[in-house]
Amino acid sequence: MTLARPKLEDIEVQLLLEGVYRYYGFDFRNYAPSSLKRRIWNILCSEKLPNVSALQEKVLHDPACLDRFLLGLSVNVTAMFRNPNFFLAFREKVVPILRTYPFIRIWHAGCSTGQEVYSMAILLEEEGLYPRCRIYATDMNEMVLKQAKGGIFSLQLMQEYTQLYLKAGGKRSFSEYYTAAYDSAIFRASLKENIVFSQHNLATDSSFNEFNVILCRNVLIYFNKTLQKRVYELFHASLCPFGILGLGRQETLKFTPYEAYYEELAGSEKLFRRIH
Amino acid sequence: MFKLVVIGTSLGGLSALKVLLSGLPANFPVAIAVVQHRHKDSEDMMSSFLQPHATLSIREVVDKDDLLPGTVYVAPADYHMLVDVGYFTLSIDEPVSYARPSIDVLFESAADVYGEFVIGIILTGANQDGAKGLAAIKAQGGSTIVQEPATAESATMPAAAIATAVVDWILPLPKIAPHLINLCQPMWK
Fold this sequence. Notes:
The structure holds two protein chains of two kinds. Chain A is of the alpha/beta class. Chain A has two domains: 8-73, no CATH class; 84-274, Rossmann fold (3-Layer(aba) Sandwich). In chain A, 41% of the residues lie in helices and 19% in strands. Chain A has helices at residues 8-24, 33-46, 52-61, 63-73, 84-98, 115-126, 142-150, 158-167, 225-238; strands spanning 104-109, 133-139, 152-154, 178-181, 184-187, 195-199, 211-216, 239-247, 262-266, 271-274. Chain A has a seven-stranded mixed β-sheet with strand order 6-2-1-7-8-10-9. Chain A has a three-stranded antiparallel β-sheet with strand order 3-5-4. In chain A, helix 6 (115-126) links the parallel strand 1 and strand 2. Chain A is globular. Chain A starts with 7 loop residues before the first helix and ends with a strand. The model of chain A has no long low-confidence stretch (mean pLDDT 94). By secondary structure, chain B is α/β, with parallel strands linked by helices. Chain B has one domain: Rossmann fold (3-Layer(aba) Sandwich), CATH 3.40.50. Chain B is built from six helices and nine strands, in the order βαβαββββαβαβαβα. The model of chain B has no long low-confidence stretch (mean pLDDT 94). The chains are: A alpha/beta, B alpha/beta. Chains A and B meet through helix 2 of A and strand 5, strand 6 and helix 3 of B.
């Protein structure tokens, strides 16, 4: 279905994204238009610019503005043990499978500032699996990765995270995992031992290893169907036979060409197992 | 011809939606998208609660669901729901005015994509979410309906919408469904 009149702003957005891609290599051209535009509106507001063409000019000529632009377009909303039922289902359904492997490679795609990566490290540690795991945590944005590597989060959040940790089936006292310093919670360095943080862009980069588990929650919702298809292909190519794929609560493999390659491990929590 | 009806409500919304949706026939020719504020941990109870009262099929949106006529789409808890041409997109961006899903987010994207083909409706609610979105719908040439504040369980949201946006029709709750049918099926009337 197409609507009659092409909007000037839509043309401006396309030109901006084309310019950013051709000049800097970051490809937002296949992001979902509605949520992307909303973020661009927010950037226009914070940059105090009148229209998208003005933003294009600034982003292309001012690298500092590019950094803010990239940050503005990144998914930065995350929490430790976000949607605790997912982690509970992971403990119950996935951990028993992982126990049968001598070595476990996990790819956390679109890890943002890392809260969910540390959550997974804690879960694996409590299940006695962490020493044989390697977690590859990737994001397209260097700035959020830097924060993720630090493993330092606001102390204020710890009360909320503790609740979520308990709902997610946490077995110890959550405060064992961090040291409070001023208004920060510094997570135990041992949790980082088997995590590799690195830059990877789902829109343009290819597979870099074969994994037993791929986690990518609430990232694909920001892509259009074309880019989603590309990423499902990438995940399929990066997952071992019988590997596990974990998606966000309102995401699904149904109606994609890859539906037939997976079975539901915990349907409501969007854990899938590759069977072909 | 309208392509999309968007509805926003919070406090008292479930009973208001029950009244509105039960008044629409199974052959209602336009897609309906609903944002009802609710707790972020609430499971998909809304569609199962509302379904027995409606002849239209009601579903909680999964990312990239097609937008089809005669279906009621409910925003899932803790996600914003936006529309693109022919389908829905979800997002976990920051709450807007403390709300996720936010009525303004749905309404502004509906206005941007469907312009004059949108009808925006604000029902009962205890905050001001939706007023900005309704104004956006009006600015893009769409139509706007607000529940008469006196008939709303909580009048704040309808009153805020009336204060901010140019509202085409202010109607008591039971009159909204018949009016929608009139707007969306003019040929048959």
